[in-house]
Design a protein that fits this description.
single chain, alpha/beta, 5 helices, 23% helix, globular, SAM-dependent_MTases_sf, S-adenosyl-L-methionine, N-terminal protein N-methyltransferase activity, transferase
């Protein structure tokens, strides 16, 4: 299984070498995301402190957790309207991702939602990337993981307007199963 190759230290070492700007974070495609943060307070989970340091003192930033997603647990007193995960879940093993998503589901307000936006493997199997120690999962695997985490898909769609040389990107809006 591709996720067995994930090494959190290798991933952190890779990201330490990336510039803490939009161009670095988006792999040379800074125009992909023009406005992500407007009008809402955002807590951030980011293990690479140079990236979170670049966000400090911004008016929309709430709490910054300098840990990996595999180690993050929301405070029991905190409930979120939205937990947004974009291009980061590939750094978790399948088992870690299931546990992380379970935590997310429990940290939601009554009508809250978990969003997952990730690249998709088009090979019918997961693909391990040695460069950043991550996995690009196929749609079927992600759906299975969501099910095991107690989440159901409320809506999903393929991201439009991205460069053709990139993997397809799918956005999943998830809610806890009732």
């Amino acid at each position: 299984m591709a996720d067995a190759n994930i090494n959190h230290q290798d991933a952190r070492d890779y990201w330490q070498g990336i510039d803490a700007d939009v161009n670095g974070m988006l792999g040379g495609f800074p125009y992909i995301s023009k406005v992500d943060l407007q009008g809402k307070t955002v807590d951030i989970v980011e293990p690479i402190s140079k990236f979170s340091d670049a966000l400090k003192n911004k008016p929309v930033i709430g709490v910054i957790y300098n840990v990996g997603l595999e180690s993050w647990s929301p405070p029991s007193s905190t409930k979120y309207d939205l937990i947004w995960n974009q291009w980061c879940l590939g750094h978790l093993t399948d088992a870690q991702l299931i546990e992380y998503l379970k935590k997310c589901g429990k940290a939601l307000k009554e009508r809250g939602m978990v969003v997952v936006k990730e690249n998709l493997s088009t090979r019918g199997e997961d693909i391990f990337d040695e460069l950043d120690s991550s996995v690009t999962r196929c749609d079927e695997k992600l759906r299975d993981i969501f099910e095991k985490a107690g989440l159901r898909i409320k809506k999903t769609e393929i991201q439009k307007g991205l460069p053709k040389e990139l993997y397809p990107v799918r956005i999943y809006a998830l809610v806890p199963k009732v």
